[in-house]
Amino acid sequence: MKYRYTKYVSTLMDEIDLEDLVSKLSDMLLSSGFTNPWGDPTEGDEDRTMQALHDAILEALFSGGVLSEEALQKILGEPADGDQEAARQQLEELVEEIIDRMMEQGFITGAPDLEQEREHRRGSGEGMNEQAGSVRFEVTDKALDFLGYRALRDLLGSVGRSAPGRHDTRHLATGIEAISAPKPYEFGDTVNLDPSSTILNAVQRLHASGESVFAGPDGSGGISVDYSDLMVAQSEYHSSCATVIMLDCSHSMILYGEDRFTPAKRVALALSHLIRTQYPGDSLHAVLFHDSAEEIPLKQLGRVRVGPYYTNTREGLRLARRILERQKKDMRQIVMVTDGKPSAITRPDGQIYKNAFGLDPYIVAETFAEVSACQKSGIMINTFMLARDHDLVAFVRRVAAICRGKAYFTTPHTLGQYVLMDYMDRKTKTIH
Known about the structure:
Rossmann fold; 16% strand; 13 strands; 3 domains; alpha/beta; six-stranded mixed beta sheet; 14 helices; flat; three-stranded antiparallel beta sheet
């Protein structure tokens, strides 16, 4: 059998780190409806079209540092050459190849008529047209999991090297890894016997009673070990934690010229990845609160959007409390991310009472009552506030005082550092 070798010729696609590109597209892939001023999650889904993806990739290529200066020079050529049409065609082909590669590796899924549209674009050479702009794509679970991993890596990297594997406490428990002095065995302990201490206890007991140490109960010459002689090795006790992350998806999360919901989703994905990989004994649930509240699967977290909703904080806390009361964990906590005052509440008859101005006395009183219910159930509430209105600050501090939690007044840019570091430090500070 003969083999023929040819010279390897690199292409522009070889210079692109696809995972790095997907990470730079995270704002677009996790979009929360910021481009839709009305906040209707059923309309204005323009950030899920192939046209939007095409434009985002172009932006990343030119401004995101995905391509080197040499590669950009190779694409664009010299302006004096005047052959800009060829450069434009080459750039379009590169974008098409990137989209194809993203589909092949499972980051996105596209429409079935994509091949026909691609042939049309190749023939016209004019890029995306109006028909192509209507073709949509979906972000896959693999892409959301990858974005959660990248968000976790970036957030932990920004606060220093950290490789936590569990939540340390000051308690000791019987286990496999012996790191402390042995203790007498008690019913219920893991039978991780410390041989030397156990034998030593038996020898001391027999010597004190005047019995022969090596006689044994049947004269066989062994050492007689009694129940009271048993010693077990101790290891550190690592507590488990059940967490509900409550995300405010009311309309204010995308108003005032700032998208606050997309960073909140990114932090939730990072927290989910952290718990799965570093704290497998912990649990995490996600609750959205708006006019009402509902629990959503973690894998759907990256796809949720804001809407024209009010802020029903009490209903979100009530649902989170019911979820946590079913969890048999050492610690139970609520991580609430919001930017607005409570402006809605669900009446006993199911009707929703709303007050757009917020901090209505009736709504506030009922919300505080639910906070007290959480405190009685042993649930801590940590609030991460993305706004700093004077009345809102007073409300959040009152919530923290009732449940002995913490209140963080942060921004979308620093939210992740506060949430992750608070989560990893929580058990050391609260279990004694």
